[in-house]
Amino acid sequence: MRRLFFVSLLQQLRVVWPILSGVISVMVACGLVIWRIEDWRLDEALYFTFVTGLTIGYGDFSPKHVSARVLALVIGFAGIVLTGLVAAVAVKALGATDQRDEE
């Protein structure tokens, strides 16, 4: 049953991969712009990007410039879309596993 789930999960990921990669690309691009605006180290900017995008938000880094704050909002919304996509793919894979298990 576990194998069916992972096979179905990979099939679903292949379907949404263009959207998923686009969302991640937008997040990384915004993080790189914030890196330049805020004059942070690159690892700090990417850390901020994914902590913000995954809606964790520790608060150890916060942008000071208005344009960087706007980009942080874009990262946050992209993170919500990313979370929704991952959840939808997992639910679809579980449903497909359940259907195959009943057969």
Automatic annotation (TrEMBL):
Compartment list: Membrane
Pfam families: Ion_trans_2 (PF07885)
Membrane protein topology class: Multi-pass membrane protein
SUPFAM superfamilies in alphabetical order: Voltage-gated potassium channels
Record's keyword terms, sorted: Ion channel, Ion transport, Membrane, Transmembrane, Transmembrane helix, Transport
Entry's transmembrane regions: 15-35, 42-58, 70-91
GO biological process: monoatomic ion transmembrane transport
Domain Potassium channel: 24-94
Origin superkingdom: Bacteria
Chief location of this protein within or outside the cell: membrane
Protein name: Potassium channel family protein
Species of origin: Rhizobium calliandrae
